[in-house]
Amino acid sequence: MRIAVLASHQGTNLQAILDAVRSGQLDATVGIVISNNSRSGAMKRAKTAGIATLHLSSVTHPDEQELDDAMLDAIMESKCDWIVTAGYMKKLGPNTLSRFNGRTINIHPSLLPRHGGHGMFGLAVHQSVLNAGDTETGATVHFLDQQYDTGAMIRQVKLPVQPGETAQSLADRLRPLEHQILIETLAQFGRAEG
Ligand code: GRF
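The joint structure predicted for all components is written out below.
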C-alpha cells in the first residue's frame, strides 16, 4: 500500500498513520502528503518524517481543472494506490476521484450520516452533537464521493456522551478512537491486497 495523505490542519491522523507504519502495525508507505495549507501541522509532520510534500490550492492553481490535474499527476508520480483525506477541507476534483474511486477514504468525527455535510468540521461537529442532545457520538471511516461525508461507510466507532461534556472534551476523547479506526481500516485493506 502506498498512501497519499491529503490534510489541511494539525495532521494528527497523518501522524497516527506514520506511527503505525513505523511500529510495523501497518504495512504501508506514505508516498506523499498534499495540503491546501502550506503552513499546516500536517505539512510540518510530513517534512519531519522525510515524506514528500506538495502545496496545492486555488492559490497555486486558480483553475479547478488544472488543480485536479496537478493533484492526480502528483499522486500518480508518487506511485500511490490509495488516498486518505484526513481533515482535508476541500473537495477532490472529478478526475482524481474517478481514478481513485473505491480507493479514497475519509475520516469524519461523528456517527455519519449524523452531523456531516458542508461546514461540519472541527468543533462544529461536536457542538452539533451536544445541541442535538445525542447520548452517543463516534467517528466514521467511509469512501469519499463527490459530496461531503456521504460515501459508503466502512467502519464506525462509538463513544458515549458524558454529563458536562463540551465540544472540546468530545474532540479530545474521540481523537484516539478516530486514529484507531483509520489504522484498522488501512490495515484491513492492506491485508486484502496481500
Ligand atoms: C479530524 O477530526 C478528522 O476526523 C476530521 O478533521 C480532523 C482532522 O484532524 N475530518 P487532524 O488534522 O488529523 O489532526
